[in-house]
Amino acid sequence: MADSRILVAVPEHPRGEGAASQQLRKIRDAIEAGGFEVTWALTAEDADAVLRTEAGLAAALVAWNLPRTAGDGPGAALAAPGSTLARPGSTLDGTPGGGAVLRRIGRRFQDLPVFLVTADEGVRDLPLWVSETVVGYVWPLEDTPGFIAGRITTAARAYRESVLPPFFRALRRFHDAHEYSWHTPAHSGGVAFLKSPAGRAFHDYFGERLLRSDLSISVEELGSLFEHTGPIGEAERNAARVFGSDLTYFVLHGDSTCNRLVGHFSVTRDEIALVDRNCHKSVLHGLVVSGARPVYLVPTRNGYGLAGPLPPAEIAADAVAARIAAHPLTEGAVSPHPQYAVFTNSTYDGLSYDAVPTARAFAASTPRLHFDEAWFAYARFHPLYAGRYGMSVDEEAFPGPDRPTVFATQSTHKLLAALSQSAMVHVRPAPRAPVEHDRFNEALMMHGTTSPLYPMIASLDVATAMMDGPQGEWLIDEAVTEAIRFRQEMVHLRRRIERAGDRPPWFFGAWQPDTVTDPATAEQLPFEEAAPELLRTEQACWLLEPGADWHGFLGLTDGHCMLDPVKVTLTCPGISATGEMAEEGIPARVLTAYLATRRIVVEKTDSYTTLILFSMGITKGKWGTLLDALTDFKALYDADAPLERVLPEAVAAHPRRYAGLTLRELCQEMHDHLRSARLVELLDLAFQQLPQPVAPPQHCYQRLVRGGTERVRISAAADRVAAAMVTVTPPGIPVLMPGESVGAPDGPLLRYLAALESFDRRFPGFRSETHGVTIDEETGDYLIECLVQDAER
After folding, report:
1. 8 Å CB contact between 81 and 91
2. pLDDT, tens digit, 9 for 90 and up, residues 701-710
3. Helix (H, G, I), strand (E, B) or coil at 330
4. What gap in Å lies between CA 516 and CA 17, rounded to an integer?
5. How are beta strands 515-518 and 509-510 bridged, if at all?
6. Which of 58-62, 195-199, 440-444 has the lowest mean pLDDT?
């Protein structure tokens, strides 16, 4: 591997004149002659900085008597009781700096070869855990530099090879063999691209290595994605071990394909499926393919318009039975008992369930349970999320014959390090609904491809390796820690603005508890004053307490739902979590349009909230830049800056609409419109009062492809039957499913869609993304796909 380094953490300066310095310098020279770079650290703080920033280490040489610098400094984490390194012996309790560095290595790396430099007295007085951490001891003056360097570089080479996961290792070896390709793809390792100007530009941009690794399924030594043999099969079995499943399958078309695959396998034509209404549209696609009859379960919503969890009362067996009995389409079902249930965990906005109690509740109604964890692939790898993910529902946590078969589908690429579209299906079968590999594989082959992109498979393999062992927790912990720092800084900044008295006392908020309780002391603390160590380790700090105003959801019970700290929802002035609207407000669409001018792209935007994600790629500079942009927006708003200065592209695109307006005027005009149209309230009604089902989704799809549908203006769509799903983004949840009645002219759905249509006309450039809606370019009217009326009958 390129850029492999060896850390030498010793108190002797490399330019020193003492015997030890000279000998260590010779060891360094011998290591570099062996093909490695050496990074020298003189203190524990220096070593800590290297360990936090350098992932390419192949070995380390650490002196037990490495000094530590007192006070604040780059390595303060080594001494701080509340730091991410806080472990027995890692604070200033008499343990030498070398011991603290060994602790950090144990958290940061798995099986990194570490050699301990000891004093003349030897190893007799060292703690027992040290011998379990290091692979050898070094007395620099007792062996030759070449011998010592040879021991270190030999261990480093073995480590470099061992960190490569199965498929990626095999792919590298195949690439290094430089074999001629006589199979597809036709570009033959990129050679074909070199024969045209455009192709040469493509080759130069992506590089030969990527193109050489784009191989055919014919390469036998790399295994088969459908037969699960060779290195691919080994990589999937390794992923099952790391992610805690019995079976794991690599999928190359994202969590959308995973959802379709699991739905297609789990439920058949005219069987009942329980479906979280807060579901991705791919879940519906799976039901269309299978021909199932969906019965929708309704999640809670708060005043911001954010979708909450399914409340416990909604998934209780008696409530499910009542929904099935009242559903118009279940009368002709194969059985009144659902065969499959699917729900979103965590939600887009970071809400996750207590997995085992939730599985127990669903198990009373169905034998198969699907956790759609598109945004939650990292949950297993940090103790803060213990018991909050699908694969935690195992035989130990849920013993006995009632345990359902559990599926977890994950977009590995979303918040772990994998290439786009890379995803996994994890399965934990139960005796009441067995999952035989060969049968599941038949469904997989229907939705997979016989021309897989091998770099995508390698990225799944590498994403798995990155989560394996202590490094997985370290990587996720870093994201959690940075999210907490940002959240607390948002509150501190608001408090400073309020205390300053020289500017309007408002600022953006972060959706989170106002106070937290330390379980060890029962002390209640303001969120911004809580120790980061408490917030990053105590799940109780993030639970949604029943009835709490900060989250605004009704019907919750203790422990049922938890907010994920890495999914940060910023709140804008104008409305509260309980739905109370203020006289003045700043719609989030204006804020995110401004952020885009600062090259800051958020994940999603609702009426008064916007979501940002703290992934493993987060840095202090990244969130510091966001804070700066938020404070700049406030200054521009308070100064009533001309809109041409704040959003010049919007004004240039629609000069007749926005020329002459100020930022504050636009915000207030948009806020007044949202308030008079009651858009957030109508959103809640549209999602809580579900449309009447008329026809199964598969029937609607058949009519769609055979010309039995027509596009209808929403102003004329009353009581028509939808032929395609309508999904408004934000919030990204279907408001209308195929086969459902659009409802009465004054019903919640048409009023909501009409309000969206009116908003889009009045505020061009700020419209919602609405899937399933076609917009008439001349009139701006919304058109939706409906069954032709004779087909409706």
Report:
1. yes
2. 999 999 999 9
3. coil
4. 55
5. unpaired
6. 195-199
The tokens describing 782, both together, are 């919304």
Contacts of 356 (CB under 8 A, 6+ apart): 387, 392, 393, 397, 398
Q: What pTM, to 2 d.p., does this model score?
A: 0.89
Give dist(CA 437, CA 366) in Å, integer.
21
Specify whether the CB–CB gap between 608 and 574 falls below 8 A: yes
Strands 726-729 and 769-771: antiparallel
Q: Is 693 helix (H, G, I), strand (E, B) or coil?
A: strand
Closest CA to 152 of 28, 52, 53: 28
Q: What is the DSSP string of 94-145?
A: S--HHHHHHHHHHHH-SS--EEEE--TTTTTTS-HHHHHH-SEEE-TTTS-H
Structure tokens at 564: 């994920």
Amino acid at 304: Y
Cis status, amide bond into 455, omega within 30 of 0? no
The answer to whether 217 and 454 are in contact (CB under 8 A) is: no
Coil vs helix vs strand at 709: strand
Q: What angle do CA 219, 222, 223 make, to 5 degrees?
A: 95
Strands of 507-560, DSSP E: 509-510, 515-518, 523-526
Residue 291, helix vs strand vs coil: coil
Encode burial over 279-315: b for 16+ CB neighbours within 10 A, e otherwise. bbbbbbbbbbbbbbbbbbbbbbbbbbbbbbbbbbebb
Predicted confidence at residue 314, as pLDDT, reads 96
Side chain identity at residue 472, one-letter code: G
CA-CA distance, 168 to 235, in Å (whole number)? 9
How many angstroms separate the CA atoms of 435 and 249, rounded? 13
**Phi and psi (nearest 5°) for 198?**
-65, -40
748 upstream amide cis, omega within 30 of 0: no
Number of neighbouring beta carbons within 10 Å of residue 515: 14
What is the rounded distance in angstroms from the CA atom of residue 64 to the CA atom of residue 204?
Answer: 48
Q: What residue type is 542 in one-letter code?
A: W
d(CA 372, CA 280): 9
| CA–CA separation, 665 and 669 (whole Å) | 6
- The CA dihedral of 519, 522, 526, 531, to the nearest 10 degrees, is -50
What's the whole-number mean pLDDT along residues 96-112? 90
Question: What is the SS3 assignment for 224?
Answer: coil
Cα–Cα distance between 751 and 757 in angstroms, integer? Answer: 10
Query: Is the Cβ–Cβ distance between 588 and 607 less than 8 Å?
Result: yes
Q: How far apart are CA 787 and CA 293, in angstroms?
A: 18
Q: What 3-state class would DSSP assign to 451?
A: coil
Q: Which residues sit opposite 677 in a β-bridge?
A: none
SS3 content of the chain, % helix, strand, coil (to 5): 45, 15, 40
388's CB contacts (< 8 A; 6+ apart) are 345, 346, 352, 353, 354, 355, 379, 539, 562
The β-bridge partners of 370 are 342, 407
Q: What are phi and psi of 16, to 5 degrees?
A: -70, 165
pLDDT digits (tens, 9 = 90+) for 130-162: 888 899 898 888 889 999 999 999 999 999 988
- Sequence-separated (6 or more) residues with CB below 8 Å from residue 379: 346, 352, 373, 385, 388, 389
Q: What's the average model confidence in pLDDT over 719-732?
A: 83
| DSSP letter assigned to residue 391 | G
Asked whether the beta carbons of 239 and 464 are under 8 A apart, the reply is: yes
754 class by beta-carbon count within 10 Å (0-12 exposed, 13-18 middle, 19+ buried): middle
Beta partners for 13? none
Mean pLDDT taken over the chain: 90
Q: How far is residue 347's CA from residue 529's CA, in Å, rounded to a whole number?
A: 28
Contact 31, 60 (CB under 8 A): no
